[in-house]
Amino acid sequence: MPVNDPTTVVQVRDGAVSLGGRPVLRRIDLSIAPGEVLAVLGANGSGKSTLVRAITGLAPLSHGEVLLFDTPVSRFRDWKRVGFVPQRATAASGVPASVWEVVAAGRLSHRAPFRPMRAGDRAAVAAAIAAVGLTDRSREGVSTLSGGQQQRVLIARAIAGEPDLLILDEPTAGIDRQSQESLAETLRLATTRGVTIVLVTHELGPLAGLIGRTVVMRDGQVTYDGPPTSTDHADLDPGHHHHLPGAGADYAPVVTAPIGGAGRPMGGRHLR
Amino acid sequence: MSILFLDFMLRALLAAFLTGLAAPAVGTYLVQRRLALLGDGIGHVAVTGVAIGLLTGASPTLTAIVVAIIGGVLIELIRQQGRSSGDVALALLFYGGIAGGILVTGLAGVGAAGLQAFLFGSIATISWADVWVTVGLVAIVVVLALGLAPQLFAVAQDEEFARVAGLNTRLYNIVVSVLAAVTVTVAMRTVGLLLVSALMIIPVATAQQLTRSFRATLVSAMGLGTVAAVGGLVVSALAPAQVNVAPGATIVLVSLAGFVLAWPVGVWTRRRRRLATPFVDPVLPPNEGDPHLDGRHTVVPESHEHHHGADCGHQAVPHGDHVDYVHEGHRHAAHGSHYDEH
Ligand SMILES: Nc1ncnc2c1ncn2[C@@H]1O[C@H](COP(=O)(O)OP(=O)(O)OP(=O)(O)O)[C@@H](O)[C@H]1O
Ligand SMILES: [Mg+2]
Ligand SMILES: [Zn+2]
Ligand SMILES: [Zn+2]
Ligand SMILES: [Zn+2]
Ligand SMILES: [Zn+2]
């Protein structure tokens, strides 16, 4: 970690996001400490991607604020500290691009325009490609890879920047078990260097062992925030809802910790 | 051949060479962003710019470049607002540009004939001054298109990722639009506004039949563009004197011919490449005990009427330490007494 250790890596204070005039995220309070490994769970459309897009500044807040490394996201400039794997079906575009070229884009946060790559940049790209097991395909066009392999290219692109905060939006969608295990190993290695990880996923799979904290989204709100539990998919199961009196009454029912969960119930927190 | 003719040919060849270099350099980014027709849209807008020049007596090149840049930036801003998609924004400019051009030339009293030279190119009337302006503009376009290649590539590839990498994606997108506008005005004199876009797009489409990387596509498209532009000009100059062969048309037809040649080669090489790709993911660790008994050992039950070999007529694909043979949709490798599916 760099010298000026932040007290929090990500902080969202009373955040709300509207897309196309429709409130998509509401009353988000989230604070992530350095070195934490956080899983964001929730059903389709519950606002997981919108949450990470708000954290990365891609989705502007309609209310509240987001701090990255203690700096408001709108004024944050130290982007080489952030690695992002967007939710994508493909890494291809209108013109052929090699695996190496796509991953090398991950070094741009370290490079000024018109500056050629340095040896350190090349080494980081090669290491990132090796970490996702695509070394012998690095000269091939990404569009000729399978969907899961393209997903691994996107992961390599994020790791290539050697970030302090790694945000992955469903990185394991369509990835086979073996590659998930090697991704888990890569992430585990990153955590030993103190990297903070925010992982959006439907299936924890081999990554489960890494997770130190889970956040469950439902209907644009955080309904559970605490240690991982054995019922991490409870948010998908309406049978487990606990209705808290007075909590979020003007919105959909609020879920607290799934059975046995020792987490902090977030539902009761209202706007002042 | 007279000295005058040589001097004219030299100017024309230089202009064609420079146009062929710049147009595909910008075109590569347009194709990557799936905005292949942006050059066309800007070309139509430039018609209005030329007409304003004809009306006011200012240099049509100057007014065209100004109006084209305004148009290009406008398209980009409309697209960024996200209210209408890129191609709707383009369509609006297409129609507005042409209609504006016709209206303004009418006002200027020169009629459509005055526009002709710009719509279809007029390489014969290029002066040395025009050539030097072209050299300057093309130098700017090429330096930016190559020098900013990593950034422009990343923005066109995945705009959201580029933003989180700290790139000013709006600025880079506007840079591409401005480069396209400058290129359109540069190419206006050689191929004409109606065919500008062809020289931006066709060399890229040709190059990507054969390339696997962005850099290779960019560089070979520029090479193909210059060959087509110079070649097309020579073809039109060689035409008999009594027929009028427009260089713009021959330049575009030569580059199309390149595409027609490259296409089957591309289909063939892509097929070969697919065949050469191992079916089993190379990440799989080889089995410790018997190197052959890994995931790749799949005995083929069917009997073979012959032993595959160098001249058995089946396609041979080198595969690590052995050779596979392709037939009936299978890829077979000899392994002792039997064949494995690879
Ligand atoms: N551009 C947009 N305009 C309007 N509404 C949007 C837009 N993008 C997303 N939404 C809405 O916001 C909600 C949250 O979407 P989001 O993409 O964050 O969900 P998610 O939890 O990531 O889902 P998934 O598991 O499918 O990725 C959805 O209801 C969706 O309909
Ligand atoms: Mg999502
Ligand atoms: Zn044979
Ligand atoms: Zn083989
Ligand atoms: Zn066989
Ligand atoms: Zn065998």
UniProtKB/TrEMBL annotation, chain A:
Gene3D superfamilies: P-loop containing nucleotide triphosphate hydrolases. Coiled coil: none annotated. Residues 224-244 are annotated as: Disordered. InterPro entries: AAA+_ATPase (IPR003593), ABC_transporter-like_ATP-bd (IPR003439), ABC_transporter-like_CS (IPR017871), Metal_Ion_Import_ABC (IPR050153), P-loop_NTPase (IPR027417). SUPFAM superfamilies: P-loop containing nucleoside triphosphate hydrolases. Residues 10-244 form the ABC transporter domain. Keywords: ATP-binding, Nucleotide-binding, Transport. GO terms for molecular function: ATP binding; ATP hydrolysis activity. It holds the Pfam family ABC_tran. This is Zinc ABC transporter, ATP-binding protein ZnuC.
